[in-house]
């Protein structure tokens, strides 16, 4: 079944995919005063990675990455790599769901059983996926129209509490922490847009020639928000408080107090995370379901959405029970992400270019 979304909807999905849990938890394991440099470098490098993703799609119009892998590498190798991506999608989807549960349980529904929160979220995700990509695109566009203005209004309020010396001295610890932080930001969350080329083909966007524009604009807009919010939070909290807080942006916003009138507005962070987190979980499960459909040669993925979503729910509840366990998974996720987000796509692009040029010569 053909599913088409507009450029704006595609950009909105990319923005929400990047925000989600990276908007509340700290994506850099050991942040220092050069955090702003790490984020800027990460955005720049990810722009190049995104060009690789788009080039792969453009070379095979109308096919997503799963289909391209099988076409380029053959059934055996292509299916093996596709299985890796399917496992990657469901694993990360389970981690995002775990983050969603833990955050909600800590800052809001303290006495609510985690299983109840998880079941509620997964039911919404199943309903969204049953309606398909177009509905997810419309919901993403609607969410961004609400989230973006809220964030742009919140950042100046955070800046009223900043201590400029928190970003000094520059390069005090050398280049290594900057490079490490940049790599962590690339794998989580910027290069997570790899998930969308598992879902999208060039024909999934109403203006297929704009596929580069959609991905680059989405990356830059999402990157701008993360840069502003994390740097503002670091300026407000300082190195120790920022690195020791499980939810640094939430902690920074909770300190906003202007004239004892405007205060206790940290609930907006929870709202943003809920809206974007729902989309991110849905995107990962959609990518996983589409992969299973390709591997099993199914015409439609929708009838496998429910059982696979339930499996993801069970994995989430059984593998992560607290924030320390979540951080453990995120630490090792970075190594897996380098393979899935960078190494395999680059190898795939090289293989695609060789095969396409060989065909063109014929």
Question: Care to describe what's here?
Answer:
- This is Endospore germination permease.
- It comes from Vallitalea guaymasensis.
- Belongs to the amino acid-polyamine-organocation (APC) superfamily. Spore germination protein (SGP) (TC 2.A.3.9) family.
- It is a multi-pass membrane protein.
- Keywords: Germination, Membrane, Transmembrane, Transmembrane helix, Transport.
- The protein is mainly alpha-helical.
- The chain has a single domain (about 5-355), classed as Amino acid/polyamine transporter I (Up-down Bundle), CATH 1.20.1740.
- It contains 12 helices and 2 strands.
- A two-stranded antiparallel sheet has the order 1-2.
- Strand 1 (about 255-260) and strand 2 (about 260-265) form a beta hairpin.
- Helix 2 (about 35-60) runs antiparallel to helix 8, helix 3 (about 65-105) packs antiparallel against helix 10 (about 265-295) and helix 8 (about 210-245) packs across helix 9 (about 250-255).
- It is globular.
- The model has no long low-confidence stretch (mean pLDDT about 90).
């Amino acid at each position: 079944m053909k599913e088409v979304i507009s450029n704006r909807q595609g950009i909105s999905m990319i923005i929400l995919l990047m925000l989600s849990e990276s908007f509340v938890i700290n994506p850099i394991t050991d942040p220092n005063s050069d955090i702003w440099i790490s984020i800027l470098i990460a955005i720049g490098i990810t722009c190049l990675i995104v060009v690789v993703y788009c080039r792969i799609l453009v070379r095979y119009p109308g096919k997503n990455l799963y289909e391209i892998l099988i076409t380029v590498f053959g059934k055996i190798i292509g299916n093996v790599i596709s299985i890796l991506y399917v496992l990657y999608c469901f694993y990360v989807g389970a981690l995002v769901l775990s983050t969603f549960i833990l955050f909600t349980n800590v800052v809001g529904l303290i006495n609510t059983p985690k299983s109840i929160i998880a079941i509620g979220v997964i039911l919404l995700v199943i309903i969204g996926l049953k309606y398909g990509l177009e509905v997810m695109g419309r919901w993403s566009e609607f969410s961004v129209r609400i989230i973006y203005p809220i964030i742009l209004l919140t950042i100046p309020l955070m800046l009223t509490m900043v201590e400029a010396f928190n970003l000094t001295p520059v390069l005090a610890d050398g280049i290594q922490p900057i490079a490490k932080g940049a790599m962590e930001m690339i794998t989580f969350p910027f290069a997570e847009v790899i998930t969308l080329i598992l879902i999208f083909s060039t024909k999934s966007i109403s203006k297929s020639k704009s596929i580069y524009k959609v991905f680059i604009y989405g990356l830059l807009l999402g990157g701008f928000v993360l840069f502003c919010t994390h740097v503002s939070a670091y300026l407000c909290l300082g190195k120790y408080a920022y690195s020791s807080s499980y939810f640094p942006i939430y902690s920074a916003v909770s300190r906003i107090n202007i004239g004892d009138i405007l205060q206790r507005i940290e609930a907006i962070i929870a709202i943003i995370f809920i809206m974007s987190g729902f989309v991110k979980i849905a995107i990962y499960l959609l990518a996983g379901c589409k992969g299973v459909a390709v591997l099993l040669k199914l015409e439609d993925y929708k009838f496998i959405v429910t059982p696979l979503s339930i499996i993801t729910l069970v994995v989430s509840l059984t593998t992560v029970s607290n924030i320390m366990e979540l951080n453990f998974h995120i630490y090792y996720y970075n190594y897996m992400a380098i393979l899935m987000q960078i190494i395999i796509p680059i190898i795939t692009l090289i293989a695609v270019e060789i095969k396409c040029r060989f065909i063109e010569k014929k």
